[in-house]
Amino acid sequence: MFRNAIVRLPCPSITEGLTSARLGKPDYSMALVQHTLYTETLRNLGLKVFVLEADDHYPDSTFIEDIALCTSGFAVITNPGAESRRGEIKGIKKVLQEFYDTIEEISYPGTLEAGDVMMTGNHFFIGVSNRTNREGADQLIKILESNGMTGSAIPLRKMLHLKSGASYLDNNKMLVCGELETCSELDRFDRIGVDAAESYAANSLWINGTVLVPDGFPCTKNKIESAGFKTITLNVSEFQKVDGGLSCLSLRF
C-alpha cells in the first residue's frame, strides 16, 4: 500500500519537452488542469501528496518518476540518460531526506531513469533502454541486493521505457504490450495483453487496489476490470504529447 506521493507541477516550457509522439505540442493550461485532477485522485485514494513547484529550466521535470526510485525503506537518485534532464536531480536529495534515512545514487558511467524500473513486491525489473544502460541497471541491482531486495535486467529493443510497455497491477497480474508480451523474464506473471492500438494504456497505475487508466482506451480498461480491479480513468492527453504517462507524474511510496 502506498501512503505518500511526490509530484512536481508542470512548467510553461513543457511545450518543449522531449517527444517521439506526433500529437502536437501540449497545452500548458490544460496540462495544469489534468495534473490537478491527477493529484486530487491520488489524495482520494488515501495518499498524502507533496507538491513541488514547477521548474521552467527543465521542460520534462513534471515527470518526476524518472529522477528517483522510492521503495519502502530507501530511495535511489537516478542519473537520467537524457542529457537535458540530468539537472533535474539537483535538489531532489533534500526533498527525499524528509522521508528517508538511506538514499543511494546512480553514478557515471551508469545511466538510469526510473521509468525503466518496475516494482513487483521485493523484486525490481529494470529495462535496459536508450535512457538506462547496463551499467546503471547493474548499479541498481547491487543497491537493491545490499538492502535485502533483488533486481534483474530486461533488454528493450523498441520501447522508450520498460513501463511504457508493462505495468504491475497486483495479485501477480501485469499489463503488457509489444515486445514484452513474449518476454520470458515475465513468464511467471498472469499477463494481460494490451492491443497495439491502445499501447499507451499499458502504462496504467495501481494505487491501493484501484488502477488508474488513461482516458480513451476502453478495451484495456475493460480487461483490467475483468481481472478484478476497480478503475478510474484520467485524461492525460497533454502529457502523452511529450512521452509521459500516469506513472511518470509521481513518486509513490
What does it look like?
With 253 residues, the protein is an alpha/beta fold. The protein has one domain: L-arginine/glycine Amidinotransferase, Chain A (5-stranded Propeller). It has 5 helices and 15 strands. It has helices at 28-44, 92-96, 134-146, 218-226, 237-240; strands at residues 4-8, 48-52, 68-70, 75-77, 103-105, 117-120, 123-128, 150-155, 166-170, 173-176, 190-193, 205-207, 210-214, 230-234, 251-252. The strands form 5 sheets. A 3-stranded mixed beta sheet has the order 2-1-15, with helices on one face. α2 (92-96) links the parallel β4 (75-77) and β5 (103-105). It is globular, with a radius of gyration of 17 Å. The model has no long low-confidence stretch (mean pLDDT 97).
Quick recap of the structure?
The chain has 253 residues and is α/β, with parallel strands linked by helices.
Describe the main β-sheet briefly: 3 strands, mixed
Q: Which architecture per CATH?
A: 5-stranded Propeller
Q: Could you give the order of the helices and strands?
A: EHEEEHEEEHEEEEEEHEHE
End-to-end gap: 8 Å
Task: Kindly report the name of the CATH homologous superfamily.
Answer: L-arginine/glycine Amidinotransferase, Chain A
Shape: globular
* Rg, Cα atoms, Å: 17 Å
Spatial order of the strands forming the largest sheet: 2-1-15
Q: Helix tally?
A: 5
CATH topology: L-arginine/glycine Amidinotransferase, Chain A
